[in-house]
Design a protein that fits this description.
The protein is mostly helical. It is built from ten helices and three strands, in the order βααβαααβααααα. 33% of the residues are buried.
Length: 315
């Protein structure tokens, strides 16, 4: 049980994406549409994979878990923001803020680990095709997802335990549309050295080590594809991992690319844009990436929708 340290702050005030009243209806409409598309897209991906025997393979098992994670990630931040805009009440309780940070960090971490697992799956499938069914057996797939869940949980819980030990004095304004770790650390009137150290090590693992492992996997994959004699064979082999590579690039480039905006732009604005890109936009676009660039997924979605739409009514 996490206990709270001495603090005179019982709630925090979220400034949102904009403090201008005339922009609130537009922001509400945009993010409501984004959230509905995110929910519909990811739910359709999950249902299509579960209902279609042709997609009962390791690659689509991991994709279903990624879609569920994206759905949960978006649900951690967007509904609360929509409620805040609609009610014009931007406060969030201390416990609610910690809970939001915990689930946000958990799902972000799980997203990263699942992308790494999916890269490993493609590595085995392309570089060691004869051993694929032996290596990526159901037990191994469940173990990889379970380890990803545990590591993401450890990442989030470590931060929350340290954050709960901090004191917050009079300043309770968070310049963001949801509770995020870094703005919270800036508000604390305690020593945050331990938090910064953990953030550095875990952040390095998620933003440097994992991408390097994914890059190393694709270097090996490309080296294998180059040895395929026919051009059509090369394209067919690479097309099996094109969707995953697009999702990885979208996730990391959308977040990191924001920080190449000229320094004249306020850092808090950059942080908000980055959060919108990797926590809101990416979960919405992933279903399109995996459905439009994958013929098997497109066919499965078509069959699933035909069964739903053409199913005769029950008497």
């Amino acid at each position: 049980m996490i206990t709270r340290n001495h603090s005179s702050v019982s709630e925090f005030l979220l400034l949102g994406l904009s403090e201008q009243w005339e922009q609130q209806p537009l922001l509400f409409g945009i993010f409501l549409v984004i959230y509905l598309v995110t929910v519909m897209g990811n739910v359709l991906i999950i249902l299509a994979i579960v209902s279609d025997p042709h997609l009962h393979s390791p690659m689509y098992f991991f994709l279903a878990n990624l879609s569920l994670t994206d759905l949960c990630l978006s649900s951690t931040t967007v509904p609360q923001m929509l409620v805040n805009i609609e009610t014009q009440r931007h406060s969030i309780p201390y416990a609610g803020c910690l809970s939001q940070i915990y689930f946000f960090l958990w799902f972000i971490g799980l997203d990263v680990f699942l992308l790494a697992v999916m890269a490993y799956d493609r590595l085995v499938a392309i570089c060691y095709p004869l051993h694929y069914t032996l290596v990526m057996n159901p037990r191994c797939c469940i173990l990889l997802v379970s380890v990803s869940l545990f590591l993401a949980h450890s990442y989030a819980l470590t931060h929350i335990i340290l954050l709960s030990q901090l004191s917050f004095c009079m300043d309770n304004i968070i310049p963001h549309f949801f509770c995020e770790l870094l703005p919270m650390l800036k508000l604390s009137c305690s020593n945050t050295y331990a938090n910064q150290c953990v953030l550095l090590y875990w952040g390095g693992a998620l933003t440097v080590l994992i991408p390097l492992l994914i890059i190393a996997s694709y270097v090996r994959i490309v080296a294998t594809i180059v040895r395929v004699p026919s051009t059509s064979g090369k394209w067919k082999t690479f097309s099996t991992c094109g969707s995953h590579l697009s999702a990885v690039c979208l996730f990391y480039v959308s977040a990191i690319g924001v920080y190449f905006i000229p320094s004249a732009v306020d850092s808090t604005i950059k942080d908000r844009i980055a959060a919108v890109m990797y926590a809101v936009v990416t979960p919405m676009l992933n279903p399109f990436i995996y459905s439009l660039r994958n013929k098997d997924m497109t066919s499965a979605l078509r069959r699933f929708l035909n069964r739903i739409l053409l199913q005769p009514p029950q008497n």
